[in-house]
Amino acid sequence: MPRPPGRPRSGIDDTVFAATLETIDSLGYTRATVDRIAAAAGIAKTTIYRRWPTKGALITSCLVDAFGPAPLTGADRSEVLSAAIRWIAAKIGEPGIGAAFAGVFTDAVNDPELRQILSTQLQDPYRLALEQVLNEPEQRVLFFIDVVVGTLLHRLGMTGRPMVTTDVEALVTMVVATLNESPAQQSPTSAVPARRS
Amino acid sequence: MPRPPGRPRSGIDDTVFAATLETIDSLGYTRATVDRIAAAAGIAKTTIYRRWPTKGALITSCLVDAFGPAPLTGADRSEVLSAAIRWIAAKIGEPGIGAAFAGVFTDAVNDPELRQILSTQLQDPYRLALEQVLNEPEQRVLFFIDVVVGTLLHRLGMTGRPMVTTDVEALVTMVVATLNESPAQQSPTSAVPARRS
DNA sequence: CGGTATCGATACTAGGAGTAGCATAACTCG
DNA sequence: CGAGTTATGCTACTCCTAGTATCGATACCG
To answer: Is the CB of A35 under 7 A from strand C?
Structure first.
């Protein structure tokens, strides 16, 4: 794949991501203006707007980078889900990440385009992976995501602090219990045999 | 109680509340500027700022008025909690209320003063009432509130639509199960007898 | 060296939160 | 009725932020 003509982009994405989280962590989401983020990264604001169309897109991109792939490991479905909940809770507790997440989520509520970006780029990969590994339908996985992420963000938003371990464990217990009770399905297609009408 | 001197305030609070919800419902939270809300209410913007210090305070006040007292009724704790969850879910689904709630919550994440207003004026009354009627400690009631409200707002924020009845019932089932399992406490002080050291 | 695309810097537009000042309206008291 | 007091409407303003425009300089390719 030949390099396209013109001056190549300098590899500053990681620098911008780091500057974004640092600025949000130290000043809060609203005061983390694009100007300040650019200054913290040592680049011009216009350079940021050449790479990300809006501030929300920048934050989303930063979060996708910060979260990385989810560790969906465990002996059974319960362990996988427990590990996933503890993982996202820890991530939201990291400096800057939780505030960035809450901030961009907040913006997305009233911005359909940003909501689309957030849903597609950030949520969907994890949702699809969870549907696979848990062998659960989309509706149910979306419900779990709403419960877990919604709870963690509500706690962060109302108190300004991430959820403590004790409550995270209560969340794990509650959600895993729900997973194992309702329509328990261990094997995908054979659980409910098709019935001819 | 003698009327204080000067021109009395005109009784426009209800008009402003209605105009606020209407404007948010039709234009969305971000486009519902104070100017537009004032115009919809047929008053001057300065009049709004004489009664509420900030836009967030106006929305919070509007929500307190819109929610009203929670119907904490039922034969036992499970019924009370179930009714409360269905009630808040229905409220958040009403036109304008959910968007207003999500919007002001969003703003509060990065605004400690607004967070204080929201916590004190909106959440605390319901939290205290729930602690009484459920006979549960503060920490546990706060956890339930985080789960229920967080889940409902996350669904509204990610999809733009309130949670459907099926999922609300799943939420009810999940939370009520947690209420009845963990440290079940039927009587307040006698459950754990004081032990002299 | 020519072509192309990025970067930095400065200046700009658009829009919303919140404020200031003033004329006017409404009400109480004497 | 008139003086005192407070609320309202209106206009104009400040401050801040997202996002855009422009232009010279820079880096890479052939």
So the answer is: no
Who contacts A55 (Cβ-Cβ below 8 Å, separation ≥6)?
A34, A107
Can you tell me the distance from the alpha carbon of A173 to that of A117, in angstroms, rounded to the nearest whole number?
A: 31
Report the 10 Å Cβ neighbour count for A149: 23
Q: Which residue in B has a C-alpha nearest to residue A107's C-alpha?
A: B106
What DSSP letter does each residue of B11-76 carry, written as one string?
S-HHHHHHHHHHHHHHH-TTT--HHHHHHHHTS-HHHHHHH-SSHHHHHHHHHHHHH-S-----SS
- DSSP 3-state assignment of B163? coil
pLDDT digits (tens, 9 = 90+) for B152-195: 999 999 998 999 999 999 999 999 999 998 654 544 443 444 44
Residue A113 CA distance to nucleotide D23 C1' (Å): 32
End-to-end distance of chain A based on CA atoms, in angstroms? Answer: 55
- Report yes or no: A147 at the B interface, CB cutoff 8 Å: yes
* Closest C-alpha to A157, from B42, B157, B65: B157
Residue to mutate among B27, B101, B106, with most A CBs inside 10 A, is B106
Domains for chain B: give ranges and CATH numbers. Answer: 13-63 (1.10.10.60), 65-181 (1.10.357)
Chain C footprint positions (protein CB, under 7 Å) = 3-11, 15-21, 25-29
Q: Which residue has the tokens 């909501």?
A: A115
Contact present, B56 and B117 (Cβ < 8 Å)? yes
Q: What tens digit of pLDDT does each residue of A120-144 get?
A: 999 999 999 999 999 999 999 999 9
A177 in contact with chain B, both atoms CB, cutoff 8 A: yes
User: CB–CB of B121/B128 below 8 Å?
Assistant: no
Summarize chain B as % helix, strand, coil (round to 5).
Answer: 70, 0, 30
